[in-house]
Amino acid sequence: MAENPVLQIVIASTRPGRAGLPVSQWVEKQAREHGAFDVEVVDLAEAGLPVLDEPHHPRLRKYEHAHTKAWSATVDRADAFVFVMPEYNHSFNGALKNAIDFLFFEWQHKPVGTVSYGGVGAGIRAVQALKPVLAALSVPVMVEAVPIPFVHTMIEGEGDDRTFVPIPEIAAGVVPMLDALARWVPAGRVLRGA
């Protein structure tokens, strides 16, 4: 196991031109500067998971497809997650739900922080919809979070050169979230070992 716990920043949106990419790059920089974690970025657009296509329930871990085995290995090595997630129609997006549904034990007892974004609602409804899904997997969701309203007003540049530049009130939320994740990791490791 790594000396530092592994934090995976999951880019939930798979859409071309997604705001999640520059937001996740900002989160990654903050997490690396925080120093409590070995940081990995997991992009669901690159993971390329099809709609759940395993014949057996994920609790059995009898995976038949290479993409599921690869996804299992990715999630399994994490100790904590930050989901960088949009809000679609008052909920979280289908790619994230699908990625969660592929697995079961690999998620358990690993804390999740949320960086949600959208318009006036800042993705908060998406986070609220996510919580019962993660509760069914024994995944704690941190109260400390980074909701981003009007996300496009904080993105500068064009194309691949876009940068997320948050206002100070939003930027101030990331360290408390990372601190909370770091506090939960030891308990999660104990629970997974039980």
Can you give keywords for this protein?
single chain, 194 residues, alpha/beta, Rossmann fold, five-stranded parallel beta sheet, two-stranded antiparallel ribbon, 7 helices, globular
Account of the 3D structure:
The strands form two sheets. The protein has a five-stranded parallel sheet with strand order 2-1-3-4-5, sandwiched between helices. Strands 6-7 form a two-stranded antiparallel ribbon. The longest helix is centred in the last third of the chain and has 20 residues. The chain has a single domain, classed as Flavodoxin domain (Rossmann fold), CATH 3.40.50.360. It is an alpha/beta fold and about 190 residues long. Helices cover about 40% and strands about 15% of the residues. The mean pLDDT is about 95.
